[in-house]
Amino acid sequence: MLKPVSAASPTVCNPARSLVQSSLEKLPPFSPILRRLLANISVNDDKLSLATVGNLIEHDALTAGKILGIANSALYSRGQRITSVAQAVSRLGANRLRNVILALSVNRIWGSIQAPDNFSISRFNQHALAVATAADLLCQKLSPEFTESAFVAGLFHDIGELLLVNLFPVEYATLLEHVALEGEELEHCETALFGTTHAEVSAEACAYWQLPDEVQTAVRYHVQPENGPSMPLSRVVNGADRYANAYGYSLMDWPYPDEALHRTLDDLGIGDEEIMTDFVQQLTVLRAVA
Fold first, then answer.
1. Who contacts 242 (Cβ-Cβ below 8 Å, separation ≥6)?
2. pLDDT per residue over 177-232, tens digit each?
3. What is the DSSP string of 225-253?
4. Superfamily of domain covering 15-289
5. Helix (H, G, I), strand (E, B) or coil at 111
6. Residue 114's closest CA among 23, 31, 235?
């Protein structure tokens, strides 16, 4: 039987917020370039200064090298090799550049977390990238008005799990064992143990970082979008999560039937096989450099 941890006491007004503040203090601070990009998630491409972003990239050798690698990949190069950050920034464009840097930056932070044996940081990383990529592609089809927010919502949708693991590694390991053995819903067990769910913690982390309201809402209700306000992005992230799981990028090592991929697209009203090709191509590029 799961025993509640003290940090989730009923006397805590908002256990998710309390947990977020405690956990984020343990993580390395965001880099200047990531802080700037997070502050401009909802800014239109024509208002985001690519020159300024390019200048920040040039002062981060590791990021600069990876951005050049992506710009020169087969997906974006069209056979024309470039050697400067300015050219790479121009080739990728604001939205793609923003997504790539977000993925690269947060992966560095996640890599610093010590997790229990039954929680794989590498698997978490691959799942987050897959959901972010799928959310970006699905949003272009379903809700293009939220395209700027889709990738980051997908990237951070499960960040609450990582924060809980960071604070309570032993307790979360026990929770995962309980879920695997008893077949209970993860969110039900999280509530019993911590007084909140990883989705709530994820949303509070997005609020802490002052991400747009639509990102916070999509993350908060990504498990059950029908329980939240009518928000197309919540449905997109939920679909992207299921799509990534079905493709083999699940956070837990659980099998999914082969037809789950097509069923996910059918549920969303999408029958476009091109999404599958784009998903593989874009995720392959990100995985190569992340």
1. 260, 264
2. 888 888 788 999 999 988 899 999 999 989 888 888 999 999 999 999 998 888 89
3. GGGS-S-HHHHHHHHHHHHHHHHT--SS-
4. Hypothetical protein af1432 (1.10.3210.10)
5. coil
6. 23
